[in-house]
Design goal:
Elements: E1 4-9, H1 23-33, E2 37-42, E3 60-61, E4 64-65, H2 72-81, E5 86-89, H3 90-95, E6 108-110, H4 115-120, E7 124-127
Parallel strand pairs: 1-2, 1-7, 2-5, 5-6
Antiparallel strand pairs: 3-4
Length: 128
């Protein structure tokens, strides 16, 4: 029986210089493609992944340009189209001055007070 797994992402832009994507979003897509029942909760600064229209072109870190910048909002939309549920913590979104209308359509806001119920609806929680 397939276990329902929730990937909790708190650290944003991990590997942004080396990669064109976030490793957690990438592994979630791979695991779903292999038949896994993986979903994502974006918390803290990682809620920014769900903001529509991001443009990281021109990103330079330590003088080194990222020639293939991430398109994290596209990665989120692609996961949604493949049946993954993507959640964001409402309070984390608001604390960053964002509105629900700023988010990729299909992303589900969840109140911080409801996280225990969200976690309880999954067999495993993987925290990154």
């Amino acid at each position: 029986m397939t276990k329902k797994i929730l990937q909790v992402v708190t650290a944003a832009h991990r590997c942004t210089l080396e990669e064109q994507d976030d490793p957690v979003l990438w592994i979630t897509a791979v695991m779903r493609g292999a038949g896994g029942d993986h979903h994502v909760l974006l918390r803290d600064n990682a809620v920014g992944y769900a903001v529509r229209g991001q443009d990281a072109s021109g990103l330079v870190i330590g003088g080194r340009p990222q020639t293939q910048p991430p398109r994290l909002d596209d990665d989120v939309a692609r996961l949604l189209s493949r049946g993954a549920q993507i959640f964001v913590v409402e309070e984390d979104v608001a604390e960053r001055g964002l509105q629900r209308t700023d988010l990729v359509p299909g992303v589900t806001p969840v109140a911080r007070a409801a996280l225990a119920d969200l976690y309880g609806g999954h067999d495993q929680i993987w925290s990154w």
